[in-house]
Amino acid sequence: MTPLLTTTGLKKVFGGLTAVDAVDFAVMPGEIRAVIGPNGAGKTTFVSLICGRLPPSSGEIRFDGRDITGLPAHRRVRLGIAYTFQITSVFANLSVYDNVALAVQRTAADRRWTGSLRDGVMSALSRTGLAGRAQERAGALAYGHQRLLEVAMGLALRPRLLILDEPTQGLSDGEIESFTDLVREIAQDATVLLIEHNMPVVMALAHRITVLDAGKVLAEGSPEEIRANAAVQAAYLGATAA
Ligand SMILES: Nc1ncnc2c1ncn2[C@@H]1O[C@H](COP(=O)(O)OP(=O)(O)OP(=O)(O)O)[C@@H](O)[C@H]1O
Q1: pLDDT-derived band at 242, boundaries 50, 70, 90
Q2: Which amino acid residue places its CA nearest to atom 2 of ligand 1?
Q3: Which residues contact 102 (CB under 8 A, 6 or more apart)?
Q4: Which of 44, 169, 213, 216 should be mutated for ligand 1, with most atoms under 8 A from CB?
Q5: What region holds the ABC transporter domain (predicted)?
Q6: Residues near ligand 1 with C-beta < 6 Å?
């Protein structure tokens, strides 16, 4: 099987700071991959390079065998890369329904969604548990529900690779549980790249985990391997995981 996504020698330098430092990375189709690491490790910068929000300083990104390093973000969305932002990117004054409708329209314009607008919106809202809030103003939703709305907007883009950046931040314990089920369901027809600080969520969901530290890959492996890795414990896990 060939990887869906690879990065080779991927690097991002901000002034004197190397935020992502020569990262070689590969994700297989259908995988749920978690990227973890201490604050400032370079996780958000790394996924921003993958989705095209930031240009790399050097290195290469391939998606489905194709070199996408120079492609603008909107072209990557068309290829099936969707990124839910760490900072809520919903339109506060539009309804929940209309926010998702914008994503469905975009997908329909690319002919990647051929059903009705309403079916596309309601399917994404049902999967995220937001169907009952379709007519609410997005800005009036609780923070956790706004995060779910972002996931619904990401799903409406019908991605092959869904990048979730700290999706459980601000969710209650019950919401985290349903979110975990949702990610498993999403992974039945998409590949998931998950940046997450909540270690129980990471350990429950990820097939494999990549640990970044100071922009470099410190370790990579199954949840069991990462849990047992002494270098990871020293850099990170000891402080945050039970
Ligand atoms: N636009 C930017 N300009 C300058 N420095 C930046 C910029 N974006 C990020 N950095 C720096 O790059 C480093 C990596 O940041 P990044 O946000 O990618 O880390 P992170 O692992 O996602 O952290 P967190 O877990 O806190 O979100 C940090 O030192 C940060 O201050």
Answers
A1: very low
A2: 14
A3: 91, 94, 153
A4: 44
A5: 5-239
A6: 14, 17, 19, 37, 39-45
Cα-to-centroid distance, 41 and ligand 1 (Å)? 7
Residue spans per domain, the chain: 32-56+69-80+160-242, 88-158
Ligand 1 centroid vs 102 CA: distance in angstroms?
A: 29
Strands (E), 97-224: 161-165, 191-195, 208-213, 216-221
Characterise 158 by phi-psi region: left (phi > 0), alpha (psi -120 to 50), beta (else).
left
Instruction: Express each pLDDT in 133-159 by its tens digit.
Output: 999 999 999 888 888 898 898 888 888
pTM above 0.90, yes or no: no
Angle at the Cα of 127 (from 205 to 75), degrees rounded to 5? 80
Q: Can you give the pLDDT at residue 148? A: 86
Residue 239, pLDDT above cutoff 60 = no
Helical (H) or strand (E) element with 63:
strand 58-63
Taking the C-alpha atoms of residue 132 and residue 154, their distance in angstroms, rounded to an integer, is 19
Q: 32-56+69-80+160-242 maps to which CATH number? A: 3.40.50.300
